[in-house]
Amino acid sequence: MDISQWEKELQAILPRVTEIRRELHRHPELSGEEKNTQALILSELQRLGVETHTFKDCYGVMGVLKNGEGRCVAIRADMDALPITEETGLAFASEQPGVMHACGHDAHMALAFGSAAWFAANREKWRGTVKWFFEPAEETFGGAQWMVQQGCMENPAVDVVIGQHMNPRYKAGVFFCKPGYVSGASDAISLRVTGKSCHGAYPESGTDAIVIAAQIVTALQTLVSRTLSPFDPAVLTIGRINGGTARNIVCGEVELEGTLRTLSPQTRAKMKERIAAVSSQIASAMGGACEVDIQPGYGAVYNDDHAYSVIARCAEEIIGSENMVLREAPSLGVESFCYFVEHTPGVYYDIGSGIGTALHTPTFLVDETVLLPGVAMQCASVLALLADGNPDG
Ligand SMILES: [Zn+2]
Ligand SMILES: [Zn+2]
Fold it and tell me: Distance from CA of residue 258 to its chain's centroid?
């Protein structure tokens, strides 16, 4: 079905999608506080006859529609807003001071509601199971991890999961995606360099932790350029350094904090190993010591080649090849969608939300003409993925 056929198909649903989007926009809630958002989603899904599940320790919601035997496809919509004071001047602007849906998650939830409404009303057109993951705290700790831990990917097992995100670099409805890696893995690096404090005029009686830390920072900056292929992206940023008490005291302890971003698991492991070795060995060579602590953050998101090709075909039919932009490179930003695709094929794509604004800013706007192609893309992709590999589908 092309966009005009979908427009007829979704005629009865779209007005409610717009209303829900505006209602959510008016009442944004920060990460981990999505209580009223959860209540609204639960009542909307239940009204459609969609089975609902909630999760411990977070405000996540899963909607499930079972319609006989078959494959299972899931859609992720994130729920949280940001600590930003809205300056759009919209009639339905945030009524919550200092809180705003500035990343489009209001639209994501409304679009997911739209596809749920269509699947609930058109059971004769599909078989299998569709799940909708409403994920809280995407902007902070990633509610996806609680949802996955509590079994959202099981019973029945999800075959493919889709994530769709607003992108204000493109006009409304543009499909922006690529197969393969789309976002990076992150690791939190903490280093504690210890030396021995002494009088600043008599350095021979101490070990200067600041000088050791300076050598470590410089050496770490050569790891990406000297141990990795130029075609294997990675970033190591030391973003915080703290040490010393006075200008005339040799510093005895320095703390450093940084972030490592990588794509492939091999590079991630190699960089972690090199960071630990370089930091501790430089410190010991200089008469001090360095404790290294590396905590894993989000994993990388890899778009499954086959599922990508199925979804790109849907985009061609609905949005048209003239409105499809092949993303050139992955980002070393992170996405909590990684938890859903850790053991399951998935596709994460952007949909243009209208040019002229930027995500995470007080003037971010969603051009609501994205709602029709947004819902149509979800419905068509899920239909195609449910029927994928199924001769009767
Ligand atoms: Zn965001
Ligand atoms: Zn977002």
Answer: 20
Q: Using the mean position of ligand 2's atoms as its centre, give its distance from the Cα of residue 377 in Å.
A: 18
Give the largest CA-CA distance in the chain: 85
φ, ψ of residue 321 in degrees (nearest 5): -60, -25
CA–centroid distance, residue 103 to ligand 1 (Å): 5
Task: Give me ligand 1 centre to Cα 11, in Å.
Answer: 30
Q: DSSP characters for 272-313?
A: HHHHHHHHHHHHHHTT-EEEEEEEE-PPPEEE-HHHHHHHHH
Beta partners for residue 61, in sequence order:
54, 134
Q: At what angle do helices 14-26 and 35-47 cross, to 10 degrees?
A: 160
Query: How far does the centroid of ligand 2 lie from the alpha carbon of residue 125, in Å?
Result: 31
- The protein residues having their C-beta less than 5 angstroms from ligand 1 (an ion) are 103
Residue 393 lies in a domain: no
Q: How far is the CA of 289 from the centre of ligand 1 (A)?
A: 38
Q: Which ligand is nearest to the CA of 109?
A: 2
Going by C-beta distance under 8 Å and a sequence separation of 6 or more, which residues neighbour residue 225?
A: none
The two structure tokens encoding residue 16: 């409610």
Residue 392: the pLDDT is 46
User: If the chain, 393 residues long, is cut into consecutive pieces of 10 residues, what is the mean pLDDT of each piece?
Assistant: 96 98 98 98 98 98 97 98 97 97 98 98 98 97 96 98 97 97 97 98 98 98 96 96 98 98 96 98 98 96 97 97 96 95 97 96 98 98 90 45
Task: Establish if 150 belongs to a structural domain.
Answer: yes
CB contact at 8 A, 150 and 55: yes
- 367 within a domain of the structure (yes/no): yes
In tens, the pLDDT along 304-343 reads: 999 999 999 999 999 999 999 999 999 999 999 999 999 9
319: containing domain: 3-182+300-387
Name the domain boundary from 296, 315, 345: 296
Pairing, β 61-67 against β 289-296: unpaired
What is the rounded CA–CA span in Å between residue 172 and residue 182? 21
Q: Which ligand is nearest to the CA of 76?
A: 2
Interatomic CA distance for residues 221 and 224, integer angstroms:
7
Domain count, the chain: 2
CB atoms within 10 A of CB 107: 28
